[in-house]
Amino acid sequence: MKTATIIIALLIILFFILFIYFLINSNGDIIKYRVIYSEDEEESDILKEDLHHSKKKCNKVCKQEFCDEYQTQMIKYDLCKECKKENKCYDPNKGLCTPCHSGQTCESLYGCGDEQPKNPLDNYCKKCWL
Known about the structure:
Blueprint: H1 2-25, H2 39-61, H3 64-85, E1 89-91, E2 96-98, H4 106-110
Antiparallel strand pairs: 1-2
Helix pairs in contact: 2-3
């Protein structure tokens, strides 16, 4: 009976030693949590970050006016794509999604042929949109 209590006491002490070791070596990351964004919030944050990052790089290679024009074209293209999700067309004059009157795609209106506007860094600072 005495050996059983000694074994239990040793197991409890071993458990506390392992627990304390885990606390010390966890670097304060014991409790992990996950932040869940709504789709709109996450997409807009990613879009803002991408545009800011690409504008910074663009200014190092191309003229400021060209980079601004590319950024404006990308915004129009992205807004057009958002309107297409609602089966509508983007009206740049009103800045709203309106019922479509023509069968043109976002790529033909705001892109480069059959694709989205090309990044100036990948296109040697050449304008490929209208």
